[in-house]
C-alpha cells in the first residue's frame, strides 16, 4: 500500500466503506492532514459514521479513508515512466 502523507496529491478511487458513497470518486485533492491531527473528527460527511481507520483530510476538512485513495505521482516521476515506455520502441 502506498504511503500517503501530508502534501501528497491523491485521487479518490473507491467509494466510502461505511455507506458506499461514490460522489467523491475521481476527486483529486492535496492531503491537508492525516487522522484528525487538526482536531476534527474523521467522520463521513455523507452518513456521519466516524471512521476508525486512518484518514486523510482535504481542505474544508472533508475526510477520506486512506484506503479509498490513490497517490498521484509527482510530475518528475511521470516523466521517468514515459521515458521507460519509449525505450522499447527505439530498440
Ligand atoms: Zn459514510
Summed up, what is this model?
This protein has one helix at residues 75-90; strands spanning 9-12, 28-30, 33-34, 55-57, 63-65, 69-71. It is α+β, with helices and mostly antiparallel strands and 91 residues long.
What does this structure look like?
It is a single chain. This protein has one helix at residues 75-90, and strands at residues 9-12, 28-30, 33-34, 55-57, 63-65, 69-71. With 91 residues, it is α+β, with helices and mostly antiparallel strands. The protein has one domain. The relative contact order is 0.23. It binds zinc ion (ZN). Zinc ion binds at residues 16, 18-19, 21, 44, 46-47, 49.
Heteromolecules bound: zinc ion
Average pLDDT level: 79
Write down the domain tally: 1
Helix-and-strand structural type:
alpha+beta
Order of helices and strands: EEEEEEH
The major beta sheet can be summarized as: 3 strands, antiparallel
Q: What helical percentage do the residues reach? A: 10-25%
Percentage beta strand: 15-25%
- The total count of strands amounts to 6
| Overall 3D shape | elongated
